[in-house]
Amino acid sequence: MAALALALPALAQATIVGAARTPDGFGWWLVDSSGNVYTYGDAHYYGGAGGTKLGAPIVGIAASPDGDGYWLVGADGGLFNFNAPFDGSLGGKTLNAPIVGMAATSSRAGYWMVGSDGGVFNFGAPFDGSLGSDKLGAPIAGMTATPGGYLLVGQDGGVFNFDTPFEGSAVGELGAAPAVAILSSADGKGYLVYLQSRVIRRSPRPRPVNAVAAGLT
Predict the structure, then answer these.
(1) Which domains does the chain have, with CATH numbers?
(2) Could you report the per-residue pLDDT of 23-39, keeping only the tens digit for each?
């Protein structure tokens, strides 16, 4: 099993809270807590929530399967859609734990949100399980969709799989920086754990790294 740390561009004064890749794996979007969206590689900009009065900080981003839009989600479950369909949100509802991330299905029909306690909420998407009633070693930090289900990642780098293969975790490799997001690879045969300053790859076999895409191949 291969593990590879990759340097990412520095983002001045930005607290990155989520990441999403383009369909071909040669680009990605990052979002900060104010809702500003940053694009890299072949990812296109469709808008952001920066400058908008938010009810809660932005905590995640999910891209539409065709790469022609994305969603941002707030800690209160409020959703912002940019050239992507709106299938519902948790805005205005009482939550047991704040929302920390989201992921979209591969069919552009629905998405999931996840709370820091591991609870998963589905909107037009199948429910494949959650950790809402489990004792966790660290709060959940984010989620990503896979061809068969989804993955959750904890702040300690622990990875939890639902209807998708487990390729390892990043527990013990994070140093002082907590994990903030997880991304599945373009071919669905691995995933990346994203920290504030680097990415840790988990895949069943070593693969070449594309410098432009920072390993999202």
Answers:
(1) 5-202 (2.130.10.10)
(2) 888 898 989 999 999 99
